[in-house]
Amino acid sequence: MKLNRTKTAVGGALLLATAAVAGTMATGSAVSAGSSVSAADAVETKGRMTALNNSNIAGSSEAVVNGRRVTLDIDARKVLKGMPHAQHIHFGATARNECPSASDDKNNDFRLTTTDGAPAYGPIRISLTTKGDTSAKSGLAVTRFPTADNGKITYNRQVKTSKAVARAIARGEGVYVVHGVDYNGNGKYDFEGAGKSELDPSLPAEATDPAACAVLKVQN
Ligand SMILES: [Cu+2]
Fold it and tell me: What is the annotated signal peptide range for this record (predicted)?
């Protein structure tokens, strides 16, 4: 009986040890298989920010596409402090997939509105909110966008999008845009800066005009 027990105990321990080794090996191989698969399938896209509307914003935007998942890593500085900044991935099948330039200012008011920017970067496809929905429907969900507490936006989130949008980003056609410009330099969004937003008249144009842009180019 005693011997049997010991045998069982030893056997049990051996089994456990074998299981642990097998587990480690299984995990190890799963991890390496997983990472090699994702390394092959994931597409890294990245771009430096171009300031728009004299915002002086600088920074970088990265989007790694894996299937329908897009992992975002955004760093922006010199952003208007303490105000929410709508930020999106834009893409349009007929857009130029570029950042807008002065020639996109159709009414020559020396301002690029979101509408002025559309031929360059297309419509909103992903809303880079801090929580909840990330679809185009949340494009102006001002309470769920980063507020740039120290004049900086540091944003990391994985979102899921449609196959078509994921593929467009993976082709290097996605454009990151952060919105919110303080034209009259009073530290907030107000209607005196540039009137009403063409997207939502209840919001000042300062809250929705594009402040910086980055074309997400495929990295090799
Ligand atoms: Cu946008």
Answer: 1-22
The pLDDT score that the predictor gives to residue 35 is 44
The secondary element (H helix, E strand) that includes residue 158 is strand 152-160
What is d(CA 49, CA 155) in angstroms, rounded to the nearest whole number?
Answer: 14
The model's pLDDT over 6-25, given as tens digits with 9 standing for 90+, comes to 343 333 333 333 333 333 33
Calculate how far, in angstroms, residue 148's C-alpha sits from the geometric centre of ligand 1: 16
Token pair, residue 152, equals 């900086």
What is the Å distance from ligand 1's center to 14 Cα?
59
Residue 108 binned pLDDT confidence (cut-offs 50, 70, 90):
confident
In the chain, the amino acid numbered 218 is V
CA of 39 to the centre of ligand 1 (A): 29
What does the alpha-carbon distance between residue 5 and residue 25 come to, in Å, rounded to a whole number?
Answer: 29
Task: Please say whether the beta carbons of 211 and 52 come within 8 A.
Answer: yes
One-letter amino acid for residue 99 of the chain: C
For residues 146 and 87, the answer to whether their CB atoms sit within 8 Å is yes
Q: Give the integer Cα–Cα distance in Å for 150 and 148.
A: 6
CA of 30 to the centre of ligand 1 (A): 38
Cα 118 to ligand 1 centre (Å):
9
What tokens were used for 147? 């507020």
